[in-house]
Recover the amino acids of this structure.
């Protein structure tokens, strides 16, 4: 029997721009042209003011660590222990993600630590945005 | 007594998705959202006016988050095709008990190939405790009732 693998996101018409961006190494968010709110996850209208007038833009990729939990049990496609993190993007929205290039320990993961996006290629279609500590 | 309670709650808006049939450019959750936003337009309400969400197939939490609604009441009862009629009854009970004032009930399904594209149908209705007397909501309510049944 083949090993169960990590589940992969399935792009939908509304999320396609996000996954195309990730494939190209860009973190793409949406912004409301009426109230200027940046939002995530993708949808064709503003969740703050319900306007249909929205645009896709390239985010800075900068974020801070908002919260996390360290998962200790083995899960297909993941190497335990690993952190499941919520990061606060510089543009405002929060995103659930994983952290790389850092020990997956409470000592190494300090809340509010500055992070930057990087991309983990799963296959030719899907790359996942993950975050690493800013070293400079 | 019970008839008096019933009269205090009305279906104030109802709608379907903007397009019907095969809609390959719309995901399942967006079918819910499109119908919901059309129903809100139908009764002149916005996401901020909604404090209760009920749905099946999708999570009511996901629907609320997607639409920018912060509800005080949720119902995810999933018992097949009659789920949504049960949602209406639950909404009437919740409104009558004071748990919330205006409930959004959504349905959306990509039958052929979820979660992306497929033959699609969706509808949504808003149930409100707003007294129907003379309000625009009342004028729409009879049409909405027909839509919802």
């Amino acid at each position: 029997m083949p090993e169960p693998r990590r589940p992969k996101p399935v792009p939908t018409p509304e999320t396609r721009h996000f996954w195309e961006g990730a494939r190209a190494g860009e973190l793409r968010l949406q912004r409301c042209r009426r109230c200027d709110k940046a939002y995530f996850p993708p949808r064709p209208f503003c969740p703050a003011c319900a306007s249909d007038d929205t645009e896709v833009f390239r985010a800075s990729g900068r974020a801070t660590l908002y919260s996390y939990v360290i998962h200790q049990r083995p899960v297909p496609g993941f190497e335990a222990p690993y952190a499941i993190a919520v990061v606060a993007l510089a543009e405002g929205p929060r995103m659930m993600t994983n952290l790389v290039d850092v020990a997956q320990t409470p000592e190494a993961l300090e809340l509010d630590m500055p992070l930057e996006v990087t991309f983990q290629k799963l296959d030719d279609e899907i790359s996942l945005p993950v975050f690493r500590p800013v070293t400079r | 007594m019970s008839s008096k309670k019933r009269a205090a709650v009305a279906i104030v808006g109802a709608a379907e998705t903007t397009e019907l049939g095969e809609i390959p450019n719309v995901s399942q959750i967006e079918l819910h959202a499109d119908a919901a936003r059309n129903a809100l337009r139908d009764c002149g309400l916005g996401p901020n006016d909604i404090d209760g969400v009920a749905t099946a197939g999708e999570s009511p939490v996901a629907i609320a988050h997607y639409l920018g609604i912060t509800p005080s009441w949720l119902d995810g009862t999933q018992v097949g095709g009659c789920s949504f009629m049960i949602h209406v009854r639950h909404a009437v009970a919740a409104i009558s008990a004071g748990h919330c004032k205006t409930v959004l009930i959504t349905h959306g399904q990509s039958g052929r190939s979820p979660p992306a594209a497929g033959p699609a149908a969706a509808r949504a209705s808003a149930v409100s405790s707003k007294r129907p007397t003379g309000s625009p909501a009342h004028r729409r309510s009879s049409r909405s009732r027909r839509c919802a049944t």
